[in-house]
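subagent[fold] <- orchestrator: predict structure for attached chain, return tokens only, no commentary.
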Amino acid sequence: MNEDWINNSIAEYYNWLRDKTQVLKNEQTGWYAITTPFLGLFNDNIEIYAKLEKDKLILSDDGQTLGNLELAGSSVTRAPVRREWFDMILLNYGITFNNNELQAEGTEKDFNQKKYNLLCAISEISDIAMMAKHTVSSLFKEDVRNFFDERNIIHTPQFIAKGNTGFEFSFDFQIAGRHKEIVIKSFNSLNKINVVNFLFGWEDIKNAREKISGKELKGLAIINDLEKELKHEYILCKFANK
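subagent[fold] -> orchestrator:
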């Protein structure tokens, strides 16, 4: 396998992300609407909003995430279990919940990290819709955690590490052995976007983690294949030899 495959994949991903992102300013309010190529709950493009007020950066989803969950029959406010997951996701990504909006605040220099955190939170919160199905009592991440607990596998949940780019990346779990460390992300579904996001995060933190821990760092994706058939090109091309 070509050793440069991951660098080529990430470069292609950045080009695709740049080409597919659109920005429109509302001259009256000063808010910028950022249409991303990431897909939301109803397979529509996720749109977020940004504004800079006196050096304070505000990013918001304008209430769309919670509104879509309501339409899907997955109200967060009326279901304690969903609300517990919702609050945990907000805490993990440093997102606030204000007037039904998901918001991230910082300064202009924080834009990239805050935008990344907000998009990750929107994506994971949208997965709560899975809990509306009568046959699903928990999120897939919880199933993975139960699997570890039942087998007494010692793990750290919600593991966060900073990479070479200065970004902080969140993984669902981390398992540390004597000579090896594994960061794990669980996926309800696999697509072009989350494949490269996962690979980029793992690759970005790899050198720093290995220097700090003195251990080899591996990346592991655990994918739910019960609801949807996996595309083999993602498995064979992206996760081979991991």
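orchestrator: received. Logging for downstream: The CA atoms of residues 35 and 47 lie 4 Å apart. The first helix runs from residue 5 to 20.
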